[in-house]
Amino acid sequence: MDFSYPAELEQFRVELRDWLSANLTEELVAARRPSGRDDASFEMLRGWSRTMSDAGWAAVSWPREYGGRGATVLEQLVYTEETTRARAPMPLNVIGMNNIAPAIMQYGTEDQKKTLLRRMMRADDIWCQGMSEPEAGSDLASLRTRAVRDGDDFVVNGQKIWTSLGHRAHWCQLYVRTDPDAPKHKGISCLIVDMKLPGIEVRPLVTLNGDTDFAEVFFHDVRVPADALLGPLNGGWQVATTTLSHERAGAARLYAEMRVRLEELVDDIAAQTDALDDPVTLRRLGEIAVRIKYLEVLCQRSISATLHGGSEITAFGSASLAKTVWGEIGQDMAALAFDVLGTRGDDAAWANYRLTSRSLTIAGGTTQINKNITAQRVLGLPRK
Length: 384
Prior knowledge:
A hairpin with a 2-residue loop joins strand 2 (146-150) and strand 3 (153-164). Helix 4 packs parallel to helix 8 (252-272) and helix 10 packs antiparallel against helix 12 (367-378). 38% of the residues are buried. The protein is α+β, with helices and mostly antiparallel strands. Helix content is 48%, strand content 14%. The chain has a four-stranded antiparallel sheet with strand order 2-3-7-6, with no helix packed on it. The two termini are 30 Å apart. This is Acyl-CoA dehydrogenase.
């Protein structure tokens, strides 16, 4: 691993830090984890997306022609470090901007790029991603939702689940099976679907902590225009791979976020208890701090591979391993916080995190899938 920050990056860092200091309010920091129950917070965060977009800070990795800054990998790394340190809210369309937008940039028509991307960046339109299904969670290739060509339309039938912001979305990047006779990786296509089309039914899902950030989405004979196809027919697997490999320094958010959480936990323990005098608590905090440092090294190794022309497989494999480690650290930190603080605090934030932490080893790729990727792409082990 070998990278350092050139002197010119400090100007970028200072500019961003000054802008965040002038524009990021305490109310925005408090609302940075939107809940499906709170419409006011959601709209506040939509306004923040517009503020960031108008200032050119919403999507620094995007090319300039689409409203970004064409940031280098190291600039993306600094951006992630500084926005996380400042506790800036993630964009409402974070899945769209990191995963869906790159596919539109690569495969979309000029009209799609012109009309969809800036509205996505500003959160004028909310996006969801139709991947997971009841029988196809982390295994996208097993999806069953069908799209059958009928004249100028595809007729879509099926179900998606765990669709983030599905009940708020205006658009969906939908993965469907268009050739049931092809090998399962090769019979998938990607559609850009207007969520107002007749036949789409959305049901919010209430999670363990009472939030409704997810939804299940049903498609009943939905007629999607054929020109909504994104990428080649039966080339959806290629589109999915493009979207999931775009953000080159995104792994930095894993360690930066955990570092901020640990700082907040220590502050809350100090303010509300005398547990920092307890050697057992101190040992547990110290172990988590060391693991976060290891996670930082692992993430930086992945970023370094990108910077120095390393194998894409190595970079992706390291990032997959980092995601697994991140989820396990988060769950252990949540358990420690609840053991020490219980339901203390006006909003019982750590008790809520204890509940939501159960999803950390599931969302964004289960631990089992990521360990398979690590075994095959990092360690070079055979599939069987």
